[in-house]
Amino acid sequence: MNENILGIIAGVFTSISMMPQLIKVIREKDVSNISLGMLLILITGLALWVVYGVLKTEWPIILTNALAVTLNTILLIFYFKFK
């Protein structure tokens, strides 16, 4: 298997790991169990991975972490909306 394909598959699974939490928050409109600090640190780390991927021209890193930044930013928006 091509290493880029493996990287993309692994990154997609890691990136969508927050989807169940996001769906739960949207359905229940409850963010009381979400840590704002964790979310901010995670988004910062993921954004830094995107920058790193751009600097290294590594598309699996760029794409999957950009997806994760997007999903977690949506969760952050709902955090403030439902808080």
TrEMBL record:
An example GO CC term for this entry is: membrane
Q: Which InterPro entries match?
A: PQ-loop_rpt (IPR006603), SemiSWEET (IPR047662)
- Compartment(s) where it occurs, according to its Swiss-Prot or TrEMBL record: Membrane
**Cell membrane keyword on record:** no
Q: Where does the chain cross the membrane? A: 6-23, 35-55, 61-80
Q: Which UniProt keywords apply?
A: Membrane, Transmembrane, Transmembrane helix
What does the record say about its membrane topology? Multi-pass membrane protein
- Transmembrane helix found in the keyword field: yes
An example molecular function term from Gene Ontology annotations = sugar transmembrane transporter activity
> Where in this chain does the entry annotate a coiled-coil region?
none
Instruction: Give the protein's recorded name.
Output: MtN3 and saliva related transmembrane protein
Native organism: Epilithonimonas bovis DSM 19482
